[in-house]
Amino acid sequence: MCKIPVSLHSSRPHDNHIHGGTRMTGTLFGYRKARVNLAIQENSKCLPILVLELAITTGKLLQEMGVGLVRIALECEKKPGEKIKIQDEPIWTLFCNGKKSGYGVKREPTDEDLMVMQTLHPVSMGAGVIPAEATENPDGELAYMRAHFERVVNSRDSETYYMMNPDGNSGPELSIFFVRVG
To answer: 9 in a domain, yes or no?
Structure first.
């Protein structure tokens, strides 16, 4: 879980919870023409507890987010008798705003993922780009969006991550649903 020392004096840890869930840090990142990655952490100073590579390009996701509300649904098949945590499922069917968009694949964090998390560790929420020279990648700038998410466990076959807006006025602009069906 958390491998980097964390301050015990966090301010207002339970503010803005809309569904009584656990506050997590979520980061969407990737090169504009490459697939987007999703990293979930207990907080911005911890190693990721989940990394998914999504079959939607970063540029396409940014375009969808520019229009407004984005809902990502990740669906997998329920296997009878198997007792695996939903976060440990290896492959997902990906839907973005109701359109089938390929797959999401769980993977271990790469050295580059960890470098991105280390670069962004002081960022609690925000969006931007990491210049190409910082990532040492010829694909150009790496775009990212980081926010607090509220993790709500609906059942052992369903979890939702709701992006929490810092102003607390409007509802979530991004929701990520994990569901096992079958």
So the answer is: no
